[in-house]
Amino acid sequence: MQKYTLKINGESREVEADPRMPLLWVLRDRLGMTGSKFGCGQGLCGACTVHVDGRATRACVLPVSAAQGRDVRTIEGLSADGDHPVQQAWIAAQVPQCGYCQSGMIMAAVALLERNPAPSDADIDEAMTNICRCGTYDRVRQAVHDAARRQASA
Amino acid sequence: MENAADYALTLTRRSMLKAAGAGTLLAFALPVRARGGNGFAPEQSALQTAYLRIEADGTVAILTPDAELGQGILTTHAMYIADEMGADWSRLKVGFSGAGEIYTNPQKNLQATGRSMGATGYFDLLRRVGAAARVQLVTAGAQKLGVPASECDTRDSKVVHAASDRALDFAELVEAASNVPVPDDPPLRDDADLRYIGRSMPRQDVPAMVRGEAEYAVDVQRPGMKVAAIRACPVFGGRVRSVERDAVIGMPGVYEVIALADAVAVVADSWWEASRALTELPVEFDEGDAADFESDAMMDTLVAQLAQPGEQVLEAGRDGDVDSALAAAGDRVLDAVYKAPYLAHATMEPMSCAALVENGRCEVWSGTQSPMQSRDAAARALGIDAADVTMHRTFSGGGFGRRWQTDFVVQAVSIAREIPGVPVKLIWSREEDIRHDFYRPAYALRFRAALDDDGGINALHLRVGGASILEAMRPGMLGGRVDPTVIAGLNDHSYRMANSHVEWVPHPTPVPIGVWRAVSHSQNGFFLESIIDEIAHAAGVDPLEWRLRHLQDSRIRAVLEKLAEVSGWDGPLGDGRGRGVALTDSYGSIVAQVAQVSVSAERQLKLERFYCVVDCGRAIHPDNIRAQMEGGILYGLTAMMHGAIDVRGGSVQQQNFNDYRSLLLRHAPPVETHIIESGHEMGGVGEPGLPPAAPAVTNAIHAATGIRIRELPLERQGWRLA
Ligand code: FES
Ligand code: FES
If contacts are CB pairs under 8 Å, which of residues 306-335 in chain B contact chain A? Predict the structure, then answer.
């Protein structure tokens, strides 16, 4: 066990953990932040997607030791009132079904739009590789375009 | 499995079941101290019933008896109650009821989410619950306003007296309304007065979902809670022989090692610590009888049996004289075998359940599809009364039939029993989830068909082989009868034919099997709609036109006609492209789909576009119906493309999303859905979107290339998605 100081959603948090413990489980089981989900544990599904230094990162395969000193942003830190343009677009398109993949899906979309404010369909295809077993993909695509428009006019 | 009879019960034809009679409403609307549920903060409210509560500020809290698996049922049920009550959509909160007989779905006499019956089964009951509350509120409000109740109505969470332009908020009426006797048979609103039912109301749970705040079982937190990881014997039916507890008990975070009959669990401070210790835990298993089971060999045997079934064949329908008709057709008989593999559900949230056992009582937190069976199974496992089990229900990260089973609930309470007083949350790894499912059974089907002079069917012989889900759940329960979970979709279709014969060759399997989204329709839709396409092709008739000519049911023809129109069926397509059509009638709804694909010489398949027409009788929530069609299609296409579970040496070979793959966003076709409200009895929508999806695509591949696909998944035959 080692002590780590993590910067999560702009706040400094102290945790004790094995250096190999994935950031996902530090968030969920050490810090009680359960918005980021567990789907596969192997970097395959994206349910655990958070931002590390602004990049969409699969937290289930990122050791806590590698997160130390970097900016971590989770779904809990996306907006104060759940009104980030991407969240608004998600509500407008009624994207979620079971909702379980959607934290990761939204974090992936936010990272994409921060890099590329007006993504094409091909850009979305390329960037959005999260699995949704409920099959919300078509709505995700439309909501990403809608979020881009909302951000452009904000 | 204890719930086979319960599942069979839900198969009873819906027309034979009537909604709860008027006299029973009182029970539903009476105040109950509802145990469990998702625990709205405990609050005293004068007006509180099993399904709803009006809080001091006038907020109407609504509890659904169903599991929310993504099908939008929290919202649908809120619409039923709130519409009748006249409650403001923005002043609702929704949650889950506890488990119990008071919450049973009148269509199946069981509180359980499956068979696409959540919207249909509770339609009358929940409207009456809402209407009873409305009568109570109106009576109280009219009294306060000093006007006749007959001049008042409710709207936007107020009792309104239009004539004097006065209104009283629900908040001002809670106390008084609770003193009004619950009416036995409150009048329902006329359809013209409905403001929510029939409209795409914003889902009540979506805002929490986009904030990451919806609580699934994996998210449950209690003071002092531990987390458990589990590993079952990889061979089905195997048993734990020995465990070296001491090898891991000193590892950081590890709290306890618990051996169950067929699995071992490690309990720790975090799931990662538990699962790491589990990988290092020395365990020996007795593998048992299934250790030589091979799914490939089973499929070969099954196909051989279809040619020579001997004694074992069961009748599932016979009309006319198929044998003579086929004999007369000689070598013009179409004769081929279709195959469908085992499938896992792979819900996005792996199986999970939290439990606390203490002083002869048990609390369970779960996203189960079957709360009553889960409650009873937990009680049996612990040797306590069902009344001493409290079910707290959470959101479910997908169900698709997997959470109908109670295995993970029994595991969680069995672990909790060993550490009394300590709440423990069991989370399966994805590997465990893929390898210990209750799989969609593998099936093979042989068909033989002879055409008549008009290109219609003179004779069709369907012989399907595979395991019975009901029989696997409870051996002996069928008593030689035909299992509807094997046969539905083959012997109840609408195609006209002079001679027909449907048979089933039962073929038991040691592989755990269960209900998978759309159950028998998931494979039978593929079989029959491909066969119909073969027949149309042999007749030299356009496959959509052929169906229009030979379907007997005008309601189904109307769906197809609409589909032909919206899909531009007759429009030109370039080289290497094709359209395919398929339709199924399941769970009371008719769904027809056109897939438009393009295909390269290297078997690169592009799913360009889907058109879907659904007639579900009455549309409660059009956007949600569209979402369910989209979801059903995608789930079906994923199985069509990638889905296959292989069993070797009695254990599943697939492990995770790398080898049990899903379609991704870049593969997903846009889906255009059109809804027909025919006014027929309302049907379900959670499952019916799935069955036509695969055959629509494989028929489209045939149209584009001449290649007939008789076996899934496509990736095993060299196909790749573009
Ligand atoms: S849980 Fe991290 S990618 Fe699946
Ligand atoms: S919404 Fe259920 S997995 Fe995506």
Answer: none
Pocket of ligand 1 (CB under 6 A): A 38-41, 43-48, 58, 60
Using alpha carbons, list the distances in angstroms from residue B222 to A18, A29, B271, B582, B704. Answer: 23, 12, 15, 49, 57
Query: Do the Cβ atoms of B584 and B700 come closer than 8 Å?
Result: no
In chain B, the domains with their CATH numbers are: 4-210 (3.30.365.10), 217-288+351-427 (3.30.365.10), 295-342+439-721 (3.30.365.10)
CATH number at residue A119: 1.10.150.120
Q: Cβ neighbours of residue A33 under 8 Å, at least 6 residues apart? A: A8, A27, A74, A76
Please answer whether residues B174 and B44 qualify as being in contact, where contact means their C-beta atoms are separated by less than 8 angstroms.
no
- Domain count of the fold of chain A: 2
Q: Which amino acid is at B109?
A: N
What is the pLDDT confidence band of residue B21, given thresholds at 50, 70 and 90? very low
pLDDT in tens, B36-93: 343 344 444 556 778 888 888 999 999 999 999 999 999 999 999 999 999 999 999 9
The residue in chain B having the minimum alpha-carbon distance to the alpha carbon of residue A63 is B272
ipTM: 0.99
DSSP-derived secondary structure letter, B691: T
What's the token pair of residue B527? Answer: 């079989």
Contact A21 B663 (CB under 8 A): no
* DSSP H helical ranges for B223-316: 271-280, 295-307
Are A73 and A115 in the same domain? no
Residues of chain B with Cβ-Cβ distance to A126 below 8 Å are: 666
B139-173, pLDDT tens digit by residue? 999 999 999 999 999 999 999 999 999 999 999 99
Residue B27 pLDDT class (50, 70, 90 cuts): very low
Closest CA to B561 of B579, B545, B538, B540: B545
Structural domain range at position A117? 85-153
Q: Residue B567 and residue B180: Cα distance in Å, rounded?
A: 55
Q: DSSP H helical segments within B171-213, as ranges?
A: 174-178, 206-210
Shared domain check, A145 and A90: yes
Round to whole Å and give the CA distance between B1 and B476.
12
